Amino acid sequence: MKTFDIHLHTDGYSRCSVINPEELIQRAVELHLDGIAITEHGIRWPDEKFETLKRLAEPHGLMLINGQEVQTYSFQKGMEGEFLIFGLKKSLGSHFPTQELVERVHGEGGILIAAHPYKRSRFGTERYYGAGDRVYEFDLDALELYHPDHDEEALAKVRRAMEKLSLPGTGGSDAHQVHEIGAYLTLFENEVRGEEDFIREIRARRIQGAENPKFKGESPFPLSPQGL
Ligand SMILES: [Zn+2]
Ligand SMILES: [Zn+2]
Fold it and tell me: Minimum-distance ligand to the CA of 176?
């Protein structure tokens, strides 16, 4: 099993995060993770800068994946959800309707994971700060199961959707602070040597979400500013 935290924000491109990218790498190495994916809001790290980070991580056997977290909107419904996107070369911003995003990402050979679909909304009229039951409407590649804002009810809802849609569940810490890194994980059955392997293995459902037992019993999650 290879352990990855595939939902992380840094202060490099997410203003809401206080994690310095070098600290992120250091902490991931300390936790003995095999890999991490950086998923800034609507922004993919420029390749050149990302390569610099990779060079810091590689001597420690830590694989880095360059992704992004994209929020979707429609005129009728407003915010439709957030999605972790992998395999695209460009930053997508946050203005697409979900269906358009799905078509674009799949058209370019990428994958979409519904981020925290049943995270409860603290503001506005929407029930969830995530796709909620809209996960049933779109052609997604995985659902984020383990996330700091998923309570028991949310976990049950994601599990039901995973079963009905035959989709795998991932885990990600959505860390915005160093101590949050690695609390939730995505376990890969096979070796992941780069983005291609990462995407193929998720598509093939040879992954599963997990809670990091090292974090059990603690409550390292104050309400995060994410989503405000
Ligand atoms: Zn999010
Ligand atoms: Zn996030």
Answer: 2
Tokens in use for 63?
């694989």
Q: Is 59 helix (H, G, I), strand (E, B) or coil?
A: helix
- Residue 144's CB is within 10 A of a number of other CB atoms, namely 30
Instruction: Report CA(160)–ligand 2 centroid distance (Å).
Output: 22
CB 7 within 8 A of CB 144: yes
Residue 103 exposed, middle or buried by CB count within 10 Å (0-12, 13-18, 19+): middle
Give the pLDDT confidence of 86-95 residue by residue, as tens digits: 999 999 998 8
Element (H, E) at 154: helix 152-165
108 C-alpha to ligand 2 centroid (Å): 22
For helices 21-30 and 47-57, give the axis angle rounded to 10 degrees: 30
Could you give the CA distance from residue 120 to residue 142 in angstroms, rounded to a whole number? Answer: 19
User: Residue 159, SS3?
Assistant: helix
Q: What is the pLDDT of residues 152-211, one digit of tens each?
A: 999 999 999 999 999 999 999 999 999 999 999 999 999 999 999 999 999 999 999 999
Q: Where are the domains of the chain?
A: 2-214
Going edge to edge, which strands form the sheet with 142-146? 169-171, 142-146, 111-114, 78-86, 63-74, 35-41, 2-8, 184-188, 207-211
For 2-214, give the CATH class. alpha beta
Question: If you measure from the C-alpha of residue 5 to the centroid of ligand 2, how many angstroms do you get, rounded to a whole number?
Answer: 12
